[in-house]
Amino acid sequence: MVHKNIGDYIVFICMIFTVLTGCAVRIPAPLEPVVLEEAPQWNVADYKLIFGSLFTAQQNVGMQKFIGEVLAHNPDLKSLASTVKATRYNAHIAKAEIWPQAGFNVSGRREKNALTKEMDKTVSISFEVSWALDIWGKLLDDARSAQYLSEKSEYDLSQAKRVMVAQSVNLWVEYLNDIRIENDLTNLNAIFNNILDYYEESYQTGLSPFEFYLNAKNNLKNGQTRIRQVQLERIKTGLTMNIMRGHFPAGKLVIKESRIPITLMALPDSISPTSLAERPDIRSAFAQTRGFEFSARAAYKALLPQINLTVSAFKNGETLKKAFNGDLLWQLVGGLTQPLFNGGQLRAIARQKSAEAEASWWQYRNTVLKAMLEVEQAMADDKMLARRIGQKKTMLKDMEKKTASAKERFSDGDMALPDYLQIKAERIEAQMELSGIELLYIKNRLSLVMALGLPVETMSENKNEKS
After folding, report:
1. Distance (Å) of CA 194 to CA 220, 410, 428
2. Residue 423 sits in which domain range?
């Protein structure tokens, strides 16, 4: 009897020692989010081009419908939406691990006794409740990790939608710009054709050298080649637009608008530097950091003792009726599990998770710094492109005055036809240059909106409800 009591004491002391040594495991401290630096120079009042208000759906209904089709049918967005559902269920599964688990079982057994040659029948009814006591908070940390990773997937989907909207607008304005350039090149080629006719007739009559005729012919060929290049680019853009909206590449694409919305984006007078904190990609990176942090904490807590409780109640009988009417038997089982030796596997897993959390932290910081760089670059480009547009518009006005003056001189007989046509060609070239700069301005303004994390719903809020 004495030896039995001594053995019980020894077991109790070992259990206390195991718990105390397990509690000594160091758990990493939580990470803090990167504080965005102040950027008072982010003021766009001086960078704004003079134009009206925000772009509205009434100005470009076709683009609104196209964006709606992309958001509704794009395969990448559909895949990400399914991933969001999966991560939500994963978070629900992790939360369910914290609560007790209950089960009900009815089983029957029929066997022949080898000695008596009689059939033995037994029916069992059992109900069991098991609960892993989360005294260290390991299961709670697992649930928090899964929740943050679920939020990360939702931010990823939100960012993907923003990117899809931006890409849709870029493709739309590129398509319209190709149409405009093609029309300008057609008019330009008509001028080159008139110049060629003039020099061909002049060469045949001996009034001009062959070199003038050859240069006019080469200019016409180059103009035709430029038209084919623009047409090819427009076809490629149309194929990409069909893929984005979930259609076959060669599907029908109808675009009725012929005007590029230069007033697509109007920014507020001032922008808070904390607006970057609302960017979905930054919030996604931070959510991932928090998820990995709690995953590391849970991995360290796996080194601590784990306590389980199980309560079971059961009845037995020869038939189901007798089993229900039989005596109720129950038992309560408590268990404590403490890993002692596993080759350092659990500790290695904990350190691995901690390293992943640290790597995620630096990825988050890198995302923030790159976002700030995107803003600075887009701001500088916005100011430069706005200045170039103003300069090109001034040059175009001068060219229009020059063209009007040349027309009067040609009518009065003071200017030859080739010289007058050449001035008209220069005006068209200046118009195409302005169109190219306006296209860059619109795309850069959209990049600035994306970099600042400003909402892009304005471009799709009035899209077709059926989409």
Report:
1. 10, 15, 15
2. 30-98+135-303+340-459
